[in-house]
Design a protein that fits this description.
- Two copies of one chain form a homodimer.
- By secondary structure, chain A is α+β, with helices and mostly antiparallel strands.
- Chain A folds into two domains: about 1-70, Arc Repressor Mutant, subunit A; about 75-145, Ferric-uptake regulator, C-terminal dimerisarion domain (Dna Ligase, domain 1), CATH 3.30.1490.
- Chain A has helices spanning about 5-20, 25-35, 40-55, 90-110, 125-130, and strands at about 60, 70, 80, 85-90, 115-120.
- In chain A, the strands form two sheets. Chain A has a three-stranded mixed β-sheet, covered by helices on one side. In chain A, strands 1-2 form a two-stranded antiparallel ribbon.
- In chain A, helix 1 crosses helix 3.
- The first copy, chain A, starts with 6 loop residues before the first helix and ends in a 26-residue tail after the last helix.
- Residues about 130-155 of chain A have low confidence and may be disordered.
- The interface of A and B includes residues 63, 108, 109 and 115 of A.
- The structure holds a DNA duplex.
DNA sequence: CCAAAATTGATAATGATTATTAATTCTAAT
DNA sequence: ATTAGAATTAATAATCATTATCAATTTTGG
């Protein structure tokens, strides 16, 4: 079963690689459909499965009911924001710190790998919060910087 | 909406607290049905939801397609075994190590919480592996110490 | 170009969970 | 204890995410 190079597969991979937002299958479907209006959701699922099975993308098992996909296969870590529900990548220093600390943990527990999801306010929400001191307990409106169909806060 | 004390809810909580196996809703349903044959799966789901919403139990978001529930609400950590698929708790020293290391991580990243699932061979499988040196690459048969309907290895 | 293999779109099926609803059970106040 | 009102139940339907099926189309390597 050699993997052939179809237009659909190419576009799915291209669109996913444009993003750093870890889309769900149906979010990616909406994007891909703008270029290939005839494509079906099943094709998107099928290709995401194949692409992750061949390590060209990552399939993420995060909290929430839907799987998410990541075009960035380099080692990195994810943080879900409790304000907007968005999943973002840890950057630079934070990233290195997680790696150091978790490798230490694997060594000490004798485990071989781990799945980690951090929960913390993302940079976008942090900015919004500090600029509205008069109402600090207000949760930021997810719609303001995320285009989810639901409330943006996925329940686990 | 005051929570009333029904037989169903009591039995569900009792049975869950007997276990340290982090059952799925349907696994718990099978157990509870031995005491209350008329109970419906919906009732089990409804009560697990209520009990976790009131912090009497934990709802776990681990890898795999089904949610799991935990009657032990004290802080502890979970490891899924790649051999048998079973989810077990980290004990004693390991436990303290994770807590220390992850608290440090939260402090350094400014995050507020995390979801962590470790992946490592569980004590039962470790014993089995070391006692069968002649075939070390063999994966232990999940059926041998897990009563799952599927193969016991949940795919993510 | 051609045959074999892989893939697609459409759609049905599945599995886990949540919602609906009429009937039953709890509760707390008499 | 009785009873009205609230909460819960069992049964079942509905939903949501994902996977499977399959005839038709596309891709591939010779």
């Amino acid at each position: 079963m050699k993997m052939s190079n179809t237009q659909q597969r190419r576009v799915i991979l291209e669109e996913l690689r444009k993003l750093d937002t870890h889309p769900t299958a149906d979010e990616l479907y909406d994007l891909v459909r703008q270029r290939l209006p005839q494509i079906s959701l099943g094709t998107v699922y099928r290709n995401l499965e194949l692409l992750s099975a061949t390590s060209q993308i990552l399939k993420l098992q995060l909290t929430g009911t839907q799987k998410r996909f990541d075009g960035n296969t380099a080692l990195h870590y994810h943080r879900r924001c409790p304000c907007c529900g968005r999943v973002s990548d840890l950057k630079g220093e934070e990233m290195a710190e997680v790696e150091r600390v978790l490798n230490e943990l694997l060594r000490k527990t004798g485990c071989r790998s781990y799945t980690l999801e951090l929960c913390g306010v993302c940079p976008a929400c942090r900015k919004q919060q500090s600029s509205s001191r008069e109402n600090p307990e207000n949760i930021n409106n997810p719609k303001s910087h995320q285009e989810n169909k639901n409330d943006g806060i996925e329940r686990q």
